[in-house]
Amino acid sequence: MLEFLPHGDERGHLVVVEGMKDIPFEIKRIFYIYGSDKDVVRGQHANRKTQFVLINVAGTSKVRVDDGKGNETIYSLNRPHTGIYLPTMVWKDMYDFSKDSVLLCLASEPYDAEEYIRDYKEFVEIVNK
Ligand code: TYD
Predict the structure, then answer these.
(1) 45 an active-site residue?
(2) Which neighbouring-strand residues pair with 74?
(3) At residue 64, does pLDDT exceed 90?
(4) Which of 29, 30, 42 to probe ligand 1 with, by most ligand atoms within 8 A of CB?
(5) Whole-model pTM above 0.90?
(6) Cβ-based neighbour number of residue 40 at 10 Å
(7) CA distance 27 to 14
(8) d(CA 77, CA 1)
(9) Domain ranges in the chain?
(10) Confidence of residue 8 (pLDDT cuts 50, 70, 90)
């Protein structure tokens, strides 16, 4: 988990995320996920090349991270100044979205569908090779 320094004052809050400073990569892409129902599970893939930082800038969600070697951890994203760093080659599920959830995703690479592994069995085989 990453804690970003909130620059708050009487006007409100401001959170800065700078590539290679607050997170361990240069940001090449951002996207955000909102309007997902509570029973939806998103993600369900691993990335060969892309690292991510996920921040619930509004609302809450959970992220389940699985290394394919029997280790699984669940993280709650519930504060706009807290993020999770996801290295390459971890399986991730995002779920339990609150109605107001806006999940901001910062990525180290441009989008390339080819570097996504969407078959869990294939992922487990690769990481245990
Ligand atoms: P998907 O990877 O299924 O989203 P999630 O992992 O968050 O559940 O992506 C949904 C659609 O959006 C899919 O058609 C691919 C497209 N997409 C892009 O074109 N560029 C991107 O950077 C991302 C993340 C997705």
Answers:
(1) yes
(2) 64
(3) yes
(4) 42
(5) yes
(6) 13
(7) 19
(8) 9
(9) 2-127
(10) confident
